[in-house]
Design a protein that fits this description.
The protein is an alpha/beta fold and about 475 residues long. Strands 1-2-3-4-5 form a five-stranded mixed β-barrel. It contains 13 helices and 21 strands. Helix 1 links the parallel strand 1 and strand 2. Bound molecules: flavin-adenine dinucleotide. The site of flavin-adenine dinucleotide has 37 residues, from helix 1, strand 2, helix 2, helix 3 and strand 3. Flavin-adenine dinucleotide (FAD) binds next to helix 1, strand 2, helix 2, helix 3 and strand 3. It catalyses: N(6)-[(R)-dihydrolipoyl]-L-lysyl-[protein] + NAD(+) = N(6)-[(R)-lipoyl]-L-lysyl-[protein] + NADH + H(+).
């Protein structure tokens, strides 16, 4: 059939995966069209994810930090919080970044078609145009013909079936809207997103309960790292319910009543002023008409791809949250570059040895590669070395010496294969461990690298020095 627009590269979805793919495609000389339903570029990450959460977490961390100073003889008193202004600050941060992306798209001559895309065959996509914020349809459909496509339609919040509609029950997007600060808040799901948002609300004055089906909060990093975070954060919680299921949620006039099931769970329904549902995210694979293009989608909605990010249809690629875990922005961006380059005919492929994870809580927890738990489960022989921040001049000077830095080495090759850091700014430092793993460094390489003193980053060098002493076959 006919088409309203034609392009060499069609990118569906303008999150970190989609805009990176579109920009790289355009830079490589392909005529590129980017389809996005919402008014701004940036997807979940910029609009309702990574960036707004960090804008709020930064303010929370400063409030908490200032409170620590009281022990040093510096008192600021109780903070006065204007929640409207704080929300405005968050919006301003988003605006700066999405505005920047719009400028970059324009500079590269990436055309944006604003609407909901649905594939109609392997070379055509229909776009139902949207208005304003992107939530409403214009009742106008255009068809784009493409030679190649990159699917970057991301993921969405998992909704629990038994949860009613009520303004006092929110998902992460609702929590980021920061409408009010509740007295008593429940976080359903003790993962990173729930704990980050819980941190913000708790610092602003809420008392927290958290309920988690698994036997620990923050799945992913080793328990020794999480333990430090938990000890420093216990004061925020009235009740941490592990191995516990949420079985019923009822909205009453005086609050949201939640029923739990678990050994240590309260028998009576508990009352909350705000409930945050942070029970995971699901891929959008089933909502884009992939079947019309012949693209395979799994039962759960993921799109399987090979190392070149190709789907089963050779000229259609997929990247980001929609292709699988970990659902992280930095993974999406790297996959995006591979997809665009392969589509352009280059021999690129996605071969990251490791993808780091960070909980931007206070203290932060950052980890990458092999964990001790994983090594144990898989029977891999490792050596580890730990540098406690109680011996770090900078951490002590900062009054924040609760953290530690851990490196994990392959017992045979002595190469670094994993690492974890808990402490302030851990997320900013884990990149060095990622580089060390990608480059196949051993303890000597890191230990003999001169790190600036006194810094928190020095702790990575120190951890390597500790291991260096214990390695047998070093030159
Ligand atoms: P998305 O960002 O989900 O973008 C997909 C885009 O496609 C969306 O804009 C959507 O509107 C559009 N779209 C989908 N279907 C269609 C269609 N049919 N037609 C038109 N447009 C469509 N990750 C980190 O790395 N660090 C963090 O600190 C972090 N914090 C987070 C905090 C929160 C609260 C949340 C929810 C997530 C966070 N994440 C974080 C995860 C991160 O946001 C995602 O991994 C990332 O956004 C995935 O990028 P993506 O390009 O795959 O998809």
């Amino acid at each position: 059939g006919g088409a309203d627009f034609e392009c060499e590269m069609l990118v569906l979805g303008a999150g970190p995966g989609g805009y990176s793919a579109a920009f790289r495609s355009a830079d490589l000389g392909m005529k590129t069209i980017l389809v996005e339903r919402y008014a701004t570029l940036g997807g979940v990450c910029l609009n309702v994810g990574c960036i707004p959460s960090k804008a709020l977490l930064h303010n929370a961390a400063v409030i908490d930090e200032v409170a620590h100073l009281e022990a040093n003889g510096i008192k600021f008193g109780k903070p006065e919080i204007d929640i409207d202004q704080l929300r405005g600050y968050k919006e301003k941060v988003i605006g700066k970044l999405t505005g920047g992306l719009a400028g970059m798209a324009k500079a590269r001559k990436v055309d944006i078609v604003r609407g909901i895309g649905t594939f109609i065959d392997p070379h055509h996509i229909a776009v139902d145009l949207t208005t304003g914020s992107g939530k409403d349809l214009k009742n106008e459909r255009v068809v784009v013909k493409f030679q190649k496509a990159i699917i970057a339609a991301g993921s969405r919040v998992v909704k629990l079936p038994f949860i009613p509609e009520d303004p006092r029950i929110v998902d992460s997007t609702g929590a980021l809207e920061l409408k009010f600060v509740p007295k008593k808040m429940l976080v359903i799901g003790g993962g990173i997103i729930g704990l980050e948002m819980g941190t913000v609300y708790s610092t602003l004055g809420a008392r927290l309960d958290v309920v988690e089906m698994m036997d620990g909060l923050m799945q992913g990093p080793d328990r020794d790292l999480v333990k430090v975070w938990q000890k420093m954060n216990e004061h925020r919680f009235d009740n941490i319910m592990l191995n516990t299921k949420t079985t019923a949620v009822e909205a009453r006039e005086d609050g949201i009543y939640v029923t739990f099931e678990g050994e240590k769970a309260p028998k009576e329904p508990q009352r909350y002023d705000l409930v945050l549902v942070a029970a995971g995210r699901a891929p959008n694979g089933k909502f884009i008409g992939a079947e019309n293009a012949g693209v395979v989608v799994t039962d759960r909605g993921f799109i399987p791809v090979d190392k070149q990010m190709r789907t089963n249809v050779p000229h259609i690629f997929a990247i980001g949250d929609i292709v699988g875990q970990p659902m992280l922005a930095h993974k999406a961006v790297h996959e995006a570059h591979v997809a665009a380059e392969v589509a352009h005919g280059e021999k690129a492929y996605f071969d990251a040895r490791v993808i780091p994870g960070v909980a931007y809580t206070d203290p932060e927890v950052a980890w990458v590669g092999m964990t001790e738990a994983q090594a144990k489960a898989e029977g891999i022989k490792i050596e580890k070395s730990v540098f406690p921040w109680a011996a770090s001049g900078r951490a002590i000077a900062n009054g924040r010496d609760e953290g530690f830095t851990k490196l994990i080495f392959d017992a045979e090759t002595h190469q670094v294969i994993g690492g974890g850091i808990v402490g302030t700014h851990a997320g900013d430092m884990i990149g060095e461990v990622c580089l060390a793993i990608e480059m196949g460094c051993d303890a000597t390489d890191i230990g003999k690298t001169i790190h600036p003193h006194p810094t928190l980053g020095e702790s990575i060098g120190m951890a390597a020095e500790v291991a260096h002493g214990s390695c047998t076959d070093l030159p």
